[in-house]
Write a structure and sequence with these properties.
The structure is a single chain. By secondary structure, the protein is α/β, with parallel strands linked by helices. It folds into two domains: about 240 residues, 3-Layer(aba) Sandwich (Alkaline Phosphatase, subunit A); about 140 residues, no CATH class. It contains 14 helices and 13 strands. A hairpin with a 6-residue loop joins strand 3 and strand 4. The longest helix is centred in the last third of the chain and has 25 residues.
Length: about 400
Amino acid sequence: MKYVVLVGDGLGDYNYPELDQKSPLEYARTPHLDWLAQHGTLGCVHTIPPGFPPGSDVGNLSLLGYDPERYYSGRAPLEAASMGIRLGPRDLAIRCNLVTLSPDHTIMLDYSAGHIPTDHARTVIRLLQRELGSAHLEFYPGVSYRHILVWRDAPVDPAELLLTPPHEIPDRPIAPHLPQGPGSHQLRELIVRSWEVLAPLQIPANSIWLWGAGRAPHMPTLTERFGLRGSVISAVDLIKGLGVYAGLNVLDVPGATGYLDTNYSGKVHAALEALQKEHFVYLHVEAPDECGHQGRLDLKIRAIEDFDEKIVGPILQGLRRAQPPWALLVTTDHYTPVRERVHVAAPVPFVIYNPQKPQHHPQRTFSERAAHASGLSIAPGYKLFEFFLQNS
């Protein structure tokens, strides 16, 4: 049996008057997603447990079948694993964004520093390591604005640190959201010192922002839990790191950027090629989430339509040519409403399609409204993965 999971990050959203009271997902042209909704099992899944931050880390951990209450230890350790960074038992991994603050360094203008190109960002991170790094503080370059700071032998409890994701405070004052809690003064000092280091460069990246701290988690692999061997495909280190801990092969696709210009066809090719040798693929697309954070309805609709046309359609076509049996799960990890530009914990739509168990709902679409109307709701969210395997 072949299993494929397709995740459009941040697909979920609210209804808008300018979209005829539809959500971007309902308004967008998505013939392949709608076909799956009409011929598959449609429902809602609660990916974010109560009390947890509604981030892609928690959401995708749930979608891979791991209970966040048992296995979540922070975002940055997952990204560190993707980057090959070894963490000792007392080392703290911290997500380090390159961001754009207002000229007086009081307002968060852009959590991505204009989606800084990776090659430029690596130069910036090397500069920060030279000027701010030490035997205990190490800066590691990632992709675009996403990087890692490792605090070796950190004398702090990450559970006591209060760190705010920069994408959760768009166009807002940063003062109330600077690091707080025991040991936070070192992190605040690093942020402030970065202003002087980056100022001469005269680029949008005029500050770092530190968040998502945690120590290395301890997780059983999907092979140990379900006997599954497979691969993960994503542009972002967070999802790749989850794949590392889940025991999956991490497939790097050239040109995968995590934005609208990502290499969609390369991801599809990598997934279908992997399925010739393996039984499981987890393919993640970041662009809808990024467009939600930007507050752009037009771009989010485009990202959704690209996901349908350039990922869902070709994957479905490729699976139809493959030797059965196979099953497909398409879903998202959380809402990223254009109106609010931040993540929101809400039940998200999913659809499972097995060509050997077709259904017939000719009027259904793949949307939040239709998923809620289906009457199928899975909570806690990590149970969806097992439901997928058992109902395929």
